[in-house]
Amino acid sequence: MKRQVNCFHCKHFYTTWNPAFPRACAVYGFKAKEMPSKLVLHVTGIECMEFEPKQSEKREKNPVSSSNFDVRL
User: Fold this and answer.
1) Contacts made by residues 14-18, CB under 8 angstroms, sequence distance 24+
2) Which of 42, 37, 44, 49 has its CA nearest to residue 6?
3) Non-local CB neighbours of 68 within 8 Å, separated by 6+ positions
4) In what helix (H) or strand (E) does residue 40 lie, and over which residues does it extend?
């Protein structure tokens, strides 16, 4: 059995402020109580074709700030 698409790893998935419809898909343009990929599978009978993985951002642990503010006394 194939695993279902995980919307939490998709760049089109977002969370809404509406408690009745907390999950949404930007590509398909709908909000739902369940995961959008599960709803797409239920309605169309095929898995989500618009899944795109999120880009992982590599952040520096100590970014260098270019400030002219002098904190010495």
Assistant:
1) none
2) 37
3) none
4) helix 36-44
